[in-house]
Design brief:
Structural class: alpha/beta
Shape: elongated
Distance between the termini: 61 Å
Largest sheet: 11 strands, mixed
Number of helices: 11
Order of helices and strands: HEHEHEHEEHEHEHEHEEHEHH
Length: 314
């Protein structure tokens, strides 16, 4: 082969390698950008599982997820500081107004079901079930500083002081529990150990034989060897939370859907749109993997269409 032929082949290969890709030929691996997420500590494990999967195929996209609580996340969302807010309850009127004042439009997408678990220490051998009314007596604001012992709630219970553990006031789980049990969101006694980090609550209940607390069912499932689940009786008999009782809402009133809220401004960036579609595609499997309860398949399909419609209407 002549030197001229070799030079010709080399030039041809160079031109082929450097030639720009045609439309539609770019790889997902080449995507760049950022997706900023915060909000519910309950939804966080789902979002982080989705983010981990997404990073594998999209290493150029920086996906960050925090858990400052549903309320804390909505504050950031209303200021335009994040693209997506994980929420364990629907947005409140005051939060929606803040978004409106900041000209932030959004779409709410359901991603899973969850139940709120009522938990006691593993060594507690006498409390298997509790009524909604008994929970209200424990947690209502007027109980603060006055109702301190188990036998003040039920005369058959021990003459011993109980210690309470639950999410902080910025948590959607706190809002949901207080509304369902006390009758008003955000209304409860304040003398309890509060944390936005459910792992702190797990450790507290595990180390306190007279403890009682509540948090998302998935966190109990992760720690069921350390804690004891209590059935809740709403007047129709005690029910333990599980996939069937949560989806059928027989575990009432402590069953709920979980959401992600996506801002319109964020959807102007292709990486955010791609991530949300990826989220809805992978959620049925990943929700189950991290201990939550998936929506019916048709609900995820409706979510995909809802998001598509939101993008079209903008």
């Amino acid at each position: 082969m002549t030197l001229r032929n070799l030079i010709g082949i080399s030039i041809s290969l160079l031109l082929f390698t450097c030639a720009p890709k045609k439309s539609g030929e770019s790889s997902a691996n080449e995507a760049t950008g950022e997706v900023r997420i915060d909000g519910s500590s309950t939804v966080y494990p789902i979002t982080e599982a989705v983010a981990e999967e997404y990073r594998v195929d999209h290493p150029g996209v920086k996906v960050t997820a925090g858990f400052s609580g549903t309320g804390g996340g909505f504050k950031k969302f209303g200021r335009g500081e994040i693209d997506i807010n994980d929420a364990s309850r629907p947005i409140k009127d005051i939060e929606a107004k803040a978004c409106e004042e900041s000209k932030i439009k959004y779409v709410a997408l359901r991603v899973a079901f969850d139940g709120l678990a009522v938990i006691v220490n593993k060594e507690n051998k006498w409390l298997d079930n509790i009524t909604v009314e008994e929970l209200k007596k424990i947690w209502e604001p007027t109980a603060q500083g006055k109702v301190k012992k188990w036998n003040q709630i039920n005369s058959k219970w021990p003459d011993a002081e109980f210690h309470l553990y639950g999410p902080g006031v910025a948590s959607g789980t706190y809002d949901y529990f207080t509304e369902a049990i006390v009758g008003k969101a955000g209304s409860s006694r304040g003398d309890y150990t509060a944390s936005e980090d459910d792992n702190v609550l797990v450790q507290g209940i595990e180390g306190d034989k007279n403890s009682l607390g509540f948090f998302g069912l998935a966190y109990f499932e992760e720690n069921k060897d350390k804690l004891k689940l209590v059935g809740v009786d709403n007047g129709k008999g005690a029910v333990l939370p599980n996939k069937e009782t949560v989806m059928s809402n027989t575990y009432a009133p402590l069953s709920r859907p979980l959401f992600i809220y996506v801002s319109e401004a964020a959807t102007k960036r292709s990486e955010v749109v791609d991530f949300v579609n990826f989220y809805l595609e992978k959620a049925p499997i990943l929700v189950k993997d991290v201990g939550y309860i998936p929506l019916p398949a048709k609900d995820y399909q409706e979510g995909v269409q809802q998001f598509k419609d939101f993008l079209t209407v903008k």
